[in-house]
């Protein structure tokens, strides 16, 4: 192992323990499974979510990802009743970071999907949810948290691609949408344009 690789491993080990990120609050979800053997975790998928849509600051997203959502609490919830989903991370409007699933495991965030010539993106991706509404703008504190998180993920996993849910499931999903600032992420992480979907390359 080279000196550079050794330093990277030491840095990664201080940030991660069994796929759990040091700077995230842990709220384990039962909605996960093992990744396929020999999978190559090289994709970060960015999402947006709010429950009910457009309402922020509550605990409903956390409840959804941990199977504790009260389906009768809002009429909208009845349209999603019974779904079992999760994401690895959730970034709230003020930048708070919550982790639900170890990044070593397979979270249930992508659904039917295809990207970079591979289907079933849950198998080899890390999912990050922004508290927000697709197409709307997100908060500076959220980008600060996201950029630090992505830097940490890229120390630990061989990430080669970042994409939105809209890029891996374009017939079904539209998040995070036009309000998402890809340039902010690209500049903060000093990413070559090849890391980003062709439709957002700047």
Could you estimate the helical fraction of the residues in percent?
A: 10-25%
Query: What is the number of beta strands?
Result: 12
Residue stretches low in confidence (pLDDT < 50, at least 5 long) are 1-10
Major sheet description: 6 strands, mixed
SS-based class = alpha/beta
Distance between the termini: 36 Å
Show the helix and strand layout.
Elements: H1 3-15, E1 16-17, E2 20-21, E3 25-26, E4 32-33, E5 43-49, H2 60-65, E6 89-91, E7 97-99, E8 106-107, E9 114-115, E10 118-119, E11 125-131, H3 140-156, E12 161-164, H4 165-168, H5 182-189
Parallel strand pairs: 3-7, 5-11, 5-12, 6-11
Antiparallel strand pairs: 1-2, 4-8, 6-7, 9-10
Helix pairs in contact: 1-3, 3-5
Question: Nutshell version of this structure?
Answer:
The chain has helices at residues 3-15, 60-65, 140-156, 165-168, 182-189, and strands spanning 16-17, 20-21, 25-26, 32-33, 43-49, 89-91, 97-99, 106-107, 114-115, 118-119, 125-131, 161-164.
